[in-house]
Amino acid sequence: MSATLVTSALAPASREGFEPPSISDFFPEGFAFVGTPFEMNRIMMIRLIMTGVLVLLFAIGASRARVVPGRFQGACEMLIDFARVNIAEEIIGKRRAAPYVPIITTIFLGVLFLNISGVIPGLNIAATSVIGMPIVFAVVAYIAFTYAGIKNHGVFGYLRSQVLPGGVPKALWILIIPIEFFSNLVMRPVTLTIRLLANMVSGHFLLALCYAATNALFIHATGALKGLGALTFGASIAFVLFEIFVAALQAYIFALLTAVYIDSSINTH
After folding, report:
1. Closest Cα partner for 9 from 237, 205, 212?
2. Where are the transmembrane segments (predicted)?
3. CA pair distance 93, 266, nearest whole angstrom
4. φ, ψ for residue 128 (rounded to 5)?
5. Which of 1, 5, 139, 192 is deepest in the core (most CB within 10 A)?
């Protein structure tokens, strides 16, 4: 339901009850260290909270580790094993994946926990919905697959493999080299950033719009129009479940593509 339709459904005297989401949601005012490089706003606070939760959960899991794991330890191990086996080893290979398992696991868990804040009451916005955090993860991934290529092939060998595929006739080098350079060395981190950012921003707008419409229809609408609030409330529940799925899916895709890029840097032809 669009903001226009919902607003028009409200009584003229109560239209102020509908507050649609806006771009200002992603740029809250600072509340600490304002005017310094360490300025703290709501988004930064959420990032710190979710990072602290991630570290705390796995610290507790590690401190209580047993030969026969309990449910909590089993859940922690399941997440780690998923990143190790189903992402790193599946894509790169068991033997070659070992040095890169820690970074791939960190990316997977980091993106997952920062994404999931978008559906946590009181936080209500993904910590990755502002471009700074997706860029950080993309830069880490870029460093990882660049390091993998240089480690295995040397600087010049890696660069040549990225800009000049094997078997290309010399007559086409002037055409292929700029395309491959732009595709492999420039666009990879850019697409990683935009994909994650766009999904988290759109998810926030969908959820916030449903919440705002539900509040406006239940509280400020008149007569039978209040019944529409049940529809928007149902949509809110559905979108919460969908956003949980998207949060996990985007974490998986980000880590998976990082593993794919590492593999392509190692196994050049």
Report:
1. 212
2. 43-62, 100-120, 126-150, 171-190, 196-218, 230-262
3. 11
4. -100, 10
5. 192
